[in-house]
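pinging the channel bc i need a second pair of eyes. not urgent but kinda urgent?? the chain im working w is below, pasted from the shared doc
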Amino acid sequence: MNLSLYFKKFFNNSQASGIILIFCVLISLLIANSSAAETFQHFLDKVVGTHLFGLEYPVSIWINDGLMAVFFLLVGLEIKRELVEGELSSFKNASLPIFAAVGGMLVPAVIYSIFNSGTEYSNGWGIPMATDIAFSLAIISMLGKKIPNSIKIFLAALAIVDDLGAILVIAIFYTEQIHWSYLLLSFGVTALLFLLNFLKVTKTIFYIIPGLFLWYFLHHSGIHATIAGVLLAFSIPTNASNVEISPLEKLEHQLHIPVSFLIMPVFALTNTNITFSGDMVAGISSTLGLGIICGLILGKLIGINVFSLIAIKLKLSSLPQNSNWLQMIGVGLLAGIGFTMSIFIALLSFKNEIHIQDEAKFAILIASFVAAILGFTILSISSKGNAEPEEN
């Protein structure tokens, strides 16, 4: 096979990015539990940037708030395209991820609170509410054409709504101070972006530059800056035609490979560096560990599917096209991959309590691993005999 053709096929293979991501997770865990752990952590803590405009942050912040904003931009572009011309173009299909996300946030928080109400861990109720969008989409991408595209779009939309909900929870309950002047500037830039869309400006650069300012203002406001990627994505012009390629579709195509094969692997490599200790294992059987594990696995599964069922029975929503309830169960489990966002909330919940943070991290890792395995297995079983035809 021609080498260039081989690489083209590799990079167009959705399963390849998921495999690389999991490989990076394993490498990161190996590093974190080896003699190189301290050196790697020093690298992540190294401050880079410039004093000018206050753009001086550790490497980990540049990755989690900077590079991941680009990831959210790509996912936002995909969701908008589906809203305009695809799987989410009808109200019944578009509303389902919202109802599912609400259930997927409320039920895990309730389950956690049942375990931990009145204890020293009570402040961590937000931990199992979050879905790690990068890892959940990576796992489902490994199934390739075996499951309908509508299920992948449903999970992506669900995860975005979930993450926006988690960001609001962080902003309202876990952020010590919101800088309103920067937040108002963020609103102003967002309004400008949608005004450009209204005026039918099609040059992508005229959106990217204000988008950079939007990221800057949101980051300084105290709110998680990755939301800038979603807001920017929804302002990029598109059309309902499959003939004419829109600015949105062009940008989506340009971002696919760098996001899948650079940004997501780097994200995995730098966010999975968890050093194991005896205290972590002991924490699994505590109310903290049980609340997190049951919240992420059972809470997400029950919340997403029960709220979806209610919405469908009330005829407010409908199942994703060509899907079934077994696949919805698989998606509910994949949404239990809390990981980085859950760890972030755990750090905010138990500031200066390192041993509790470590116990929470390990419980999140265990829950996310179990959710990933169960979700992948159920989706694989549900897809037998229903695979979509491979594209040439």
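so DSSP finds 16 helices and two strands in the chain. and The CA atoms of residues 208 and 232 lie 8 Å apart. — does that match what u expected or am i reading it wrong
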